Each structure stands twice: as C-alpha cells, then as structure tokens.
UniProtKB/TrEMBL annotation:
This is PPR3E phosphatase. It comes from the Eukaryota. Gene3D superfamilies: Carbohydrate binding type-21 domain. InterPro entries: CBM21_dom (IPR005036), CBM21_dom_sf (IPR038175), PP1_regulatory_subunit_3 (IPR050782). GO terms for molecular function: glycogen binding; protein phosphatase 1 binding. The gene is Ppp1r3e.
Amino acid sequence: PPPLLEPLFPPQPGASPGFAERVRQHKVRLEWVRAEPAGLRGAVRVLNLAYEKAVSVRYTLNRWASCAEVPAAYQPAGPADGLTDRFAFLLPLGPATVAAEPTLEFAVRYRVAGAEYWDNNEGANYRLRGRQRGPPAPGPLQDPDSTAWIHFI
C-alpha cells in the first residue's frame, strides 16, 4: 500500500481562532493541506494588497539539499471578505518519492507590489512525515448476509 503523509502541524490552520488576523498581520498563511494519491493538495490565503500577485510553494524531500517550487492557482470562488484571496496548490508526489524520502518540508511565498512575504510556519517550515500504511486490521471474516433475517409468513 502507498505511504501516507502525516502532517507534523495542525493540517487546517485556517480553522483555528484568529486565522483572519494572522493573514492581515503576516500577509500570507497556509489555510489547509490534505495528502492525496497524486500528492499534497492545499490552500493558501493572502491579503489582497494588489491585483497582480503570485503565490507559490517551495518544497524539499531532502532537507533543502535541493528543492522545487510549484505555482498556486487563484481560486475565483474565494473568501467573501473582500480583504483576502485564496490560492490552491498541488505538490506532485508519487508514492515512490514519499517512500524513498520520508520527510517533506515546504514554505509558501507570496509576491505582490514589489514585495515578498513568506509563511514558513514561524521558522520551522511545514513538515510532513511519510509513513507506510499498515495492513488491514485482522478480524473475523463475516458473510455480509449473516446478519440478515428471512421472515416467512
């Protein structure tokens, strides 16, 4: 079975109290992440400082000996607050990649109006650990119809 990516941070920072204030203060914040077979999917919230902006996610599988960066895509059906925009990303990680390199680290970059802002989880980076999916729990095999009742009148 393919390995899972287990976040070493709360996977939905956007659901925590004070999230909107942190976006206003720091200009960019990770909203949520979810491990999928295709890779790591997530969303980023940025303060709407100008029309033109670029959001990307820089990540590594080898403790920053090398890294890659993927752009995040603007989500038009974003927050209705008028102050922030949402961007979505997918880090393309196959099962073999995660199995070979057990730790994924990433940070979010927001470029707008000649400035650059980062969300690197307060200097610790966002880290996920790859772990093998365990075998199914052993249990008695049961006929799916064994609990059905047949009633004759």
